[in-house]
Amino acid sequence: MGSESKTDLIRVLGHRDALAVAFGAMIGFGWIVLTGTFLESAGTLGAALAFVLGGVVIAFIGLTYAELVSAMPSVGGEHNYVMRAMGSRPAFVTSWALVLGYISVVAFEAVALPETVLYLFPDMQVGKLWTVAGYEVYLSWVAVGVGASVVMTLINYVGVRPAAVFQTVAVLFLGAVGVALLLGSAVGGDTGHMSPLFTGGAAGLISVLVATPFLFVGFDVIPQSAEEINLPYRKIGQLLLVSIALAVFWYVLIMITVGMSMPATELAGSDLAAADGMAALWGSDLMGTILVLGGIAGILTSWNGFLIGASRLIYAMAQSGMLPWWFGELHPKYRTPSHALIFIGGLSVLAPLFGRQTLVWMVDAGGLSIIVAWVVVALSFVILRRREPTMERPFRAPGGQATGVIAVVLGVSLGVLFLPGMPAALIWPYEWLVIGLWWLVGVAFLVRVPRVGPGADAEDRVLAALRGR
């Protein structure tokens, strides 16, 4: 085992820190890039309704998380819930799926940042390197992504507290951008621009709905860092739900305010509809630039949040003996999972070299993996409610087992949309190849994990079995 134990993590995150980490992780760059597409596909109210419906789905899943994190506030979150409910190998499968989802987001943000900087400085492309999947990769573009990857990794390496402070500052800037959008819609918005309120019928609504899992993912970062949150356990569960509610409000706000800014035909032809909408609301190109800076803040908060989540999950898997012990080391001074952070940071440094399209494939594959993990966690909630009714649960999800069953059904319904022939079908063969290669590596680790049944002492039994080999 690594030289440190889980209890060596430091509880330094307060109420605002935890909320900023979760909310910031959910607000990436998608709201900048995809707003025009959403409004064109479903209409202003149609797109807003899709986010409300997606929020309801995520809320049911979030309720199961809120109860479980309050009952088992340990680093690794989902890893612990599934281990206790189903045993060692289902826990590995769930955690391995989540690692792909989290790392895919971190890697994509390393590409999204230079892509956004390119919008602000369109002449920055110099030093062409190569073309990957039709995307031309330039040295200057790569340098921005690599430099940011090093900085973001370093911030997390030197302590969770500096990472949380960075997150809070960036989230506050995002909030200021949201207020500017709201005020702009009151000053320069026109409800006539929202017409037609609904377009595309059910197909239009679904086309937006299928994007919500990727846009809402991030609330589950709270369970990963639960051992570093210095709050009553019940409060941790409540904060998780508040973060989901804030994300729903944010996305609905974006749809309505941007929908009021310009005629739908003009928004549909815009590369960054949210930025052009902000400029139109205020009659100033500067305000459009400020909104793009808000998008950069969103990239950084998502990047930071998933660095925290992915590193803690990998650390927990190593502490359970499911990954090499090297990943389970804590820094002797900063008390962070330094080796896991170096590994993830190294992947993000490499990401810009592959261009944008290949990372889109990885993110789509990661989105399905995250939904699979959500379903298994909801199922674990149901199992533990039935098997361990007396387990201490500082936060108890209303509705009991029925809430978990609904979460499972809704999660499976979202996952089905990624299958061939469905609206969000993964691209063949590229995105399925990403999943296949990931699980090829995963199986190599899985066969080494001892078969241990569920229970509160499951991790101890896994470690004992490994020591006995």
Give an overview of the whole structure.
The chain has 469 residues and is an all-alpha fold. The chain is 70% helix and 2% strand. It has helices spanning 15-26, 30-33, 35-42, 44-71, 78-86, 88-120, 139-157, 160-188, 201-209, 212-216, 221-224, 233-259, 264-268, 273-282, 285-319, 338-350, 355-387, 401-416, 430-446, 458-467, and strands spanning 128-132, 135-138. The chain has a two-stranded antiparallel sheet. Strand 1 and strand 2 form a beta hairpin. Helix 5 packs across helix 17. It is globular and about 70 Å long. Mean pLDDT is 91; it is low at 1-7.
Low-confidence stretches: 1-7
- State the secondary-structure class: mainly alpha
Q: What's the story with the biggest beta sheet?
A: 2 strands, antiparallel
C-alpha Rg (nearest Å): 22 Å
- What is the typical, i.e. mean, pLDDT? 91
Tally of helical segments: 20
Tell me the strand percentage band. under 5%
| Dominant shape | globular
Give the strand order of the largest sheet, numbering strands 1, 2, ... along the chain.
1-2
Oligomeric state of the chains? single chain
